[in-house]
């Protein structure tokens, strides 16, 4: 949980594997990196066993780059595709038993605040739609109502992709899947609405076909969760296996879905806007002057 | 044999949009080198692929064809690449960017 754990022990540097040496010497720890620098530094995420062309992996890769302080971040996840990649990253990962990731993160973020005081330590929950909206639903919602200060990111692929294609609460109505042959009977759950109702300080929906937008959304969510309150991001990360999307058409599908039902939306409380503007200099949230001063006439 | 992405340096170094580096789902697979294009007297550097990490999904081909409209990336059989970069031969530079020793692909 500090820059010390990304250093070599004295005398051991030449024996370390190349990936580790690259991470220490050219990793993002202690620096500011952005998505426009991708391909020129060693990333936190390593080789992972996720399917070729998976949009969830792309989102996780962008998320790892977007963390404001990767050396002070802990990710929490649960069963599902996402943790296969998240657990391969060079930042600590805590595995919550299926469904209790938000409860684990609550304890973790409270403990870190007791131990480190004002020094920011970020806890980020990244789990799938099944782990968050079905099995861990009560704990996700309760962490929001308790105003636990950590970021919750839902990797919404609208299906249980890891177990063969069962319907989840986030699947669209009428969708036929391999393990849901009659089609889903009820509507997609409105998790964004529930997050707003529960009082999340920052709520956003995003699709990974715009890397810069993903970066800005995750930066804001993690920063707001440091002091203001719970934050929630819902990201559409298609499952190209269960939805039979050819891998080279994954971004085309993301674009279509964004236009169809996953438009970018962002909701901030006034407190969060004020915090981002005054503490981190987000110009778009600075209070606008009440009346525009008229230009002097020539 | 299997397909991997292959980036045409002549087309890529003329524009250098870097979109493919941002859309690849694999970490550190499409990398960027400042010298690759400049050695050939072109304006910018070029992206290149670490072939041992490429899973052959062809997302970069769609991005290059439809978003950037440069048509610089093609899928090629790995034993038909004349030269390719692999992870062990890639060096990250202090100034940003990377340098790769590209060698003929060894096929067992």
Care to describe what's here?
The complex is a heterodimer of chains A (298) and B (108). Chain A has 298 residues and is of the alpha/beta class. Chain A contains 10 helices and 7 strands. Chain A has a single domain, classed as 3-Layer(aba) Sandwich (Rossmann fold). Chain A has a 7-stranded mixed beta sheet with strand order 2-1-3-4-6-5-7, with helices on both faces. Chain A starts with 17 loop residues before the first helix and ends in an 18-residue tail after the last helix. The relative contact order of chain A is 0.12. By secondary structure, chain B is an alpha+beta fold. Chain B has a single domain, classed as Alpha-Beta Plaits (2-Layer Sandwich), CATH 3.30.70. Helix content of chain B is 24%, strand content 22%. Chain B is built from 4 helices and 6 strands, in the order E-H-H-E-H-E-H-E-E-E. In chain B, strands 1-4 form a two-stranded antiparallel ribbon. In chain B, a hairpin with a 5-residue loop joins strand 5 and strand 6. Chain B is globular. Chain B starts with a strand and ends in an 8-residue tail after the last strand. The chains are: A alpha/beta (298), B alpha+beta (108). At the A-B interface, helix 1, helix 2 and helix 9 of A face helix 2, strand 2 and helix 4 of B.
């Amino acid at each position: 949980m500090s820059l010390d754990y990304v250093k070599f022990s004295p005398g051991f540097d030449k024996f370390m594997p190349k990936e580790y040496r690259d991470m220490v010497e050219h990793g993002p720890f202690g620096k500011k990196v952005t998505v426009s620098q991708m391909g020129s530094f060693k990333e936190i995420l390593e080789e992972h066993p996720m399917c070729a062309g998976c949009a969830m992996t792309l989102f996780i890769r962008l998320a790892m780059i977007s963390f404001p302080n990767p050396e002070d971040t802990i990710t929490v996840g649960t069963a599902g595709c996402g943790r296969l990649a998240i657990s391969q990253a060079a930042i600590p990962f805590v595995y919550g038993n299926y469904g209790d990731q938000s409860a684990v993160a609550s304890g973790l973020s409270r403990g870190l605040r007791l131990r480190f005081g004002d020094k920011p330590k970020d806890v980020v929950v990244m789990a799938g739609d099944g782990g968050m909206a079905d099995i861990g639903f009560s704990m996700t919602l309760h962490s929001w109502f308790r105003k636990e200060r950590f970021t919750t990111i839902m990797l919404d692929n609208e299906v249980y992709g890891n177990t063969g294609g069962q319907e989840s609460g986030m699947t669209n109505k009428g969708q036929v899947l391999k393990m849901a042959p009659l089609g889903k009977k009820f509507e997609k759950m409105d998790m964004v609405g529930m997050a707003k109702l529960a009082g999340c300080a920052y709520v956003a929906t995003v699709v990974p076909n715009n890397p810069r937008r993903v970066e800005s959304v995750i930066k804001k969510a993690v920063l707001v969760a440091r002091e203001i309150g719970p934050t929630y991001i819902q990201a559409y990360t298609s499952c190209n296996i269960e939805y039979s999307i050819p891998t080279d058409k994954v971004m085309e599908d993301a674009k279509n879905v964004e236009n169809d039902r996953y438009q970018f939306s962002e909701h901030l409380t006034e407190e969060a806007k004020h915090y981002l503007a005054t503490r981190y200099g987000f110009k778009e949230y600075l209070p606008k002057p009440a009346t525009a001063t008229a230009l002097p006439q020539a | 044999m299997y397909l991997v992405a292959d980036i045409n340096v002549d087309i890529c170094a003329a524009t250098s949009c870097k979109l493919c580096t941002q859309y690849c789902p694999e970490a550190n697979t499409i990398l960027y080198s400042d010298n690759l294009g400049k050695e050939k007297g072109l304006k910018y550097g070029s992206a290149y692929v670490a072939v041992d990490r490429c899973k052959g999904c062809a997302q970069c081909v769609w991005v290059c064809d439809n978003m950037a409209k440069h048509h610089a990336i093609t899928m090629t059989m790995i034993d038909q690449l004349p030269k390719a970069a692999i992870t062990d031969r890639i060096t990250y530079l202090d100034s940003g960017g990377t340098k790769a020793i590209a060698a003929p692909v060894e096929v067992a």
